[in-house]
Specification:
The longest helix has 16 residues. This protein has a domain of 104 residues: LysM domain (Membrane-bound Lytic Murein Transglycosylase D, Chain A, Roll), CATH 3.10.350.10. About 4% of the residues have low confidence. Helices cover 35% and strands 12% of the residues.
Length: 156
């Protein structure tokens, strides 16, 4: 009779706690002086879209050497620059000491390409100055702008 009771207790404990599985533990709980600490081991968190974009953004060039026949419109339109020709005034304003007339740039000039330090309002003003429609002053979704700006526009 004692064996049956012991067997019933073991079976009920196994059903209550389940069987041991051969999987790697996701969490390990450590109790130290009545305080519970949860340690997560070997958890791989994939990067967020914002982190991916910011990593790519950091690798983009911060200057451009003018080739024969180029204009600020074309330079701003390059995918690795801004991917938006209406943003050329940003390049012009960053290089005013060497560009007196935005219609006259010369082969061999090294132009700074601003990557930080400008706001969404400045981008809208630049696009307006470059001739964008008043309905279309926000940069397009594929424009190369800082991640915070893309997030504020709802693109990330």
């Amino acid at each position: 009779m004692k064996k049956l009771i012991l067997l019933a207790v073991v079976i009920s404990l196994m059903s209550a706690f389940g069987c041991a599985k051969k999987t790697a533990p996701q969490e390990e709980v450590v109790v130290v002086e009545e305080t519970e600490v949860v340690v997560i081991e070997d958890v791989v968190v994939p990067p967020t879209p914002m982190e991916i974009y910011e990593n790519e953004y950091r690798t983009l060039p911060t200057s451009h050497v003018v080739a024969k026949g180029e204009c600020l419109w074309w330079i701003a339109e390059y995918q690795q620059i801004y991917n938006d020709p209406f943003m050329w005034p940003l390049i012009y304003k960053a290089n005013r000491e060497q560009i007196k007339n935005p219609d006259l740039i010369y082969a061999g000039q090294s132009l700074d390409v601003p990557r930080v330090g400008y706001s969404l309002d400045e981008v809208k003003d630049a696009r307006k100055e470059a001739g964008a429609s008043w309905k279309d002053l926000d940069p397009q979704q594929n424009a190369v702008v800082p991640g915070e700006m893309k997030a504020a526009l709802g693109y990330l």
